[in-house]
Specification:
This is U6 snRNA-associated Sm-like protein LSm1. The protein starts with 19 loop residues before the first strand and ends in a 14-residue tail after the last helix. β3 and β4 form a beta hairpin. It contains two helices and six strands; from the N terminus they run βββββαβα. Strands 5-1-2-3-4-6 form a six-stranded mixed beta sheet.
Length: about 140
């Protein structure tokens, strides 16, 4: 273990500066951008950021520019291998199309959940009255 140190704090982000990263946020958004800066709280500054929305085997990108992320909102952070990124079995579509597909999937999910809650209520089970789509 001579000269070997394990960093478990934001200091380990030093090697990721100026690299293309994927950041998954607490609210489920996925951001891709170049890490330009960070601090001791793991607050991040991403440049040339895009928000990528995945639906099935398709995705769409929304340009966001410079993006500042509060460290407590980061769930996952990883470097993107740009050579492998081009080989993904995903199809890029216009963002309007992916948002429309996403909206249709969400409406279908809400419909299924309402039906499920109705059936459970009819059988005497208690159902939480949480708004659909709320994560917290």
């Amino acid at each position: 273990m001579d000269g070997f140190q394990i960093f478990t704090t934001s200091t380990s982000l030093v090697e990721s500066v100026d690299k293309k990263l994927l950041v998954v946020l607490r609210d489920g958004r996925k951001l891709i951008g170049i890490l330009r800066s960070f601090d001791q709280f793991a607050n991040l500054v991403l440049q040339d950021t895009i928000e990528r929305i995945y639906v099935g085997d398709t995705y769409g990108d929304i340009p966001r520019g410079i993006f500042i992320i509060r460290g407590e909102n980061v769930v996952l952070l990883g470097e993107i291998d740009e050579d492998k990124e081009d080989e993904l079995p995903l199809r890029k579509v216009p963002v309007d199309e992916v948002l429309q597909i996403q909206r249709a999937e969400m409406e279908a999910k809400i419909k299924r959940e309402r039906e499920r809650h109705r059936l459970l209520s009819e059988q005497g089970f208690s159902v939480d009255a949480v708004e659909f789509g709320e994560l917290y």
